[in-house]
Amino acid sequence: MTVALIDYGAGNLRSVANALAAAGADTVAITADPERIARADRIVLPGVGAFGACMSGLLAANGVVEAMAEAVALRGRPFLGVCVGMQLLADRGIELGDHKGLGWIPGTVRPIAPGPALRVPHMGWNDVHAATPHPLLVPGEAYFLHSFAFDAADPAQVLARTDHGGAITAAVGRDTIVGVQFHPEKSQAYGLAFLSRFLEWRP
């Protein structure tokens, strides 16, 4: 099994690749080659940084968005977005401006509003609560680091939530697409178990 880990200048690629290998991936190809992406068995889109900058970097990687869409829409390949990679699935992100996303999961990424007892960014370990039954998401504790949250248009596409001054989306998904706000590669046993389920998933 080959996992295409998308290289567009916006992710901690090596740690994600190591976690995928530890979870059982045969081959992890860190790549921006549209042909390799389109033919991969699994696709993982990482992301660290601001929504607009990450989306610009993804669009600048010639043919990558089209290859991802071909793999997912035409070939039915399982797709995982991590952190900002999950946020890019939205229609738009409101961070340092208003930026268009991939539009694969309808919704808007909005800033988490700070409060007297609410620290932003949301950083550290927090519980993951399943919201919609899905084979990849189980209750547990994962590592989060983000200041913006995915406001999904369809509650049925929210697979899990966490609590940080109220409910925050921890995972979204539909069909063969899943996105998680937490970092599996930093979530120790919970994260490796999640990645193992993703590698074994047959949607």
UniProtKB/TrEMBL annotation:
The record's annotation in CDD domains points to: GATase1_IGP_Synthase
Q: Where is the Glutamine amidotransferase domain?
A: 5-188
Give me the reactions it catalyses.
L-glutamine + H2O = L-glutamate + NH4(+); 5-[(5-phospho-1-deoxy-D-ribulos-1-ylimino)methylamino]-1-(5-phospho-beta-D-ribosyl)imidazole-4-carboxamide + L-glutamine = D-erythro-1-(imidazol-4-yl)glycerol 3-phosphate + 5-amino-1-(5-phospho-beta-D-ribosyl)imidazole-4-carboxamide + L-glutamate + H(+)
Q: Which domain of life is it from?
A: Bacteria
Instruction: Enumerate the active-site residues.
Output: C83, H183, E185
Pathway(s) of this molecule: Amino-acid biosynthesis; L-histidine biosynthesis; L-histidine from 5-phospho-alpha-D-ribose 1-diphosphate: step 5/9
Q: Main localization of the protein?
A: cytoplasm
Annotated GO molecular function terms are:
lyase activity
The primary gene name is hisH
Keywords of the record: Amino-acid biosynthesis, Cytoplasm, Glutamine amidotransferase, Histidine biosynthesis, Hydrolase, Lyase
User: What are the subcellular locations of this protein?
Assistant: Cytoplasm
Q: How does it assemble?
A: Heterodimer of HisH and HisF.
The task this protein performs is described as:
IGPS catalyzes the conversion of PRFAR and glutamine to IGP, AICAR and glutamate. The HisH subunit catalyzes the hydrolysis of glutamine to glutamate and ammonia as part of the synthesis of IGP and AICAR. The resulting ammonia molecule is channeled to the active site of HisF.
* HAMAP family in UniProt: HisH
Identify the InterPro entries for this entry: Class_I_gatase-like, GATASE, Imidazole-glycPsynth_HisH
What is the designated name of this protein? Imidazole glycerol phosphate synthase subunit HisH
Species of the source: Sphingomonas morindae
Q: State which Enzyme Commission number(s) the record gives.
A: 4.3.2.10, 3.5.1.2
